[in-house]
Amino acid sequence: MIIITVFSLLSFLLGFILSYTNYIFPIKIDPVINKVNSILPQSQCAQCGYAGCYPYAKAIIEKNEKTDKCIPGGVEVISKINKLLNLNDSIEIEEINIQNTPVVYTTVKIDEKNCVGCSKCASFCPVDAIVGAPSFMHTVVQEFCTGCNICLFHCPTNCIKIIKEDRLC
Prior knowledge:
Helix content is 42%, strand content 13%. It is an alpha+beta fold and 169 residues long. The chain has a two-stranded antiparallel sheet. It has a two-stranded antiparallel ribbon with strand order 2-3.
């Protein structure tokens, strides 16, 4: 009984110290970073060169990173971010450049004959584009796949292949 009382008091004291420290030294969050982050597709695919959408949004605001690195978001995300940041002049230039050039979209396809159903690829897919049950074959829903290729590294049978497709925006 004494041990429970001591741990309860200690937990209460440490919780009070933690909340007081947070009150004295609050974490400052930039609301513009959160707005840019909310525009991004949240696929956490790392195709932009950052670990996820929030680090990319932070780099756009703090390091003046280009706004056209989000491949899954496409022109729509670029224009929304540019409008938010009042970069209206660059919207027209980027849309003209993107619309006139072919863009290589990558997705993946699972060779279903060789799939053993380990479901490792499905557990690591950030957008849940891989469907299937454990011990059964899996397949990729192409319209949801962002082409991040994270699943390639986790497939033990190497039955996942990259599909490249040229499309005009």
